[in-house]
Design goal:
Layout: H1 5-13, E1 28-30, H2 37-47, E2 50-53, H3 60-63, E3 71-76, H4 79-89, E4 95-98, E5 112-118, H5 125-131, E6 132-143, H6 149-156, H7 167-176, E7 180-193, H8 196-205, H9 219-232, E8 235-247
Parallel strand pairs: 2-3, 2-5, 3-4, 5-6
Antiparallel strand pairs: 1-7, 6-8, 7-8
Helix pairs in contact: 1-8
């Protein structure tokens, strides 16, 4: 494995950017929340009649379901992921619509009794409420406020914590759209980065951690972080996650 700063930077920049964290296996780690989102989705999908997964990524979660509803739909905004998701979901009859994250959903009112979304970039609560059938549920795991702030501060200096991704904000948005929030759980989880290449790949993928991230722009802080990891071991941070379940009233 490359060990010099320049070698690690070059290795990280050669990794294609996409919503795929497989490259980080063995070089970074993040604990999973206690509620086991994938299991919850599988349980809900097994009894749903029509389900929609918003911002599905490459379709990995849906493709791994042990049982799918009679109607399974998904949306995704990034064209390479759209192609992958369509390929993975076609065998189970799933359809994938290419839709911008902040656009209206291309489905009729009351189309789905289940809507799911893991780590949305944008939340359109009125659209979620519109496509839910009366009595239907929305289940989502989301990134909370201040997630991985240790890495943000290491590169940018101390930063105020934005509340855009706060659980309380999601609660307010759901209720304003006319949904009843039936569950809201939060958890702080340990993260570990073993080398600076893992840090760079993560920051190129999760772009809101350091919004203007560029290796040359942040070369100084990256080099200092590389020296810290080399001298003291993995860089440790904290991810914030919350689970929200909301229901459209039956009448």
């Amino acid at each position: 494995m490359p060990s010099t700063f320049e070698d690690l930077v070059a290795e990280a920049l050669a990794v294609p950017v996409g919503w795929d964290f497989g490259w980080l296996a063995g070089r970074a780690d993040e604990a999973r929340p206690w509620w086991r989102y994938s299991r919850l989705v599988a349980d809900r999908m097994a009894v749903a009649r029509a389900a929609l997964d918003i911002q599905t990524g490459a379709g990995d979660l849906l493709a791994a379901l042990p049982a799918v509803p009679p109607r399974l739909a998904a949306t995704e905004s990034w064209p390479p992921n759209v192609a992958l998701a369509r390929e993975r979901l076609a065998p189970v009859g799933g359809t994938v619509a290419e839709v911008a994250d902040d656009a209206d959903l291309p489905f009729d009112d009351g189309s789905f009794d289940l809507v799911t979304c893991r780590h949305p970039t944008v939340l359109r609560w009125p659209e979620i409420a519109r496509v839910l059938a009366p009595g239907g549920s929305y289940l989502s795991q989301q990134v909370g406020a201040g997630s991985v702030r240790e890495l943000t501060d290491a590169l940018m200096g101390p930063q105020p914590v934005s509340q855009v991704r706060a659980a309380a904000r999601a609660l307010g948005g759901a209720e304003a759209a006319g949904l009843d929030v039936v569950a809201l759980h939060q958890q702080s989880l340990p993260m570990r980065f073993d080398d600076i290449a893992a840090v760079i790949v993560f920051l190129r993928t999760v772009v809101w951690i350091v919004p203007d991230f560029d290796v040359e722009r942040y070369r100084g802080p990256l080099l200092a972080l590389h020296d810290q990891i080399t001298a003291h071991g993995p860089f440790r941070a904290t991810s914030e996650r919350f689970l929200i379940e909301a229901r459209r009233p039956a009448s």
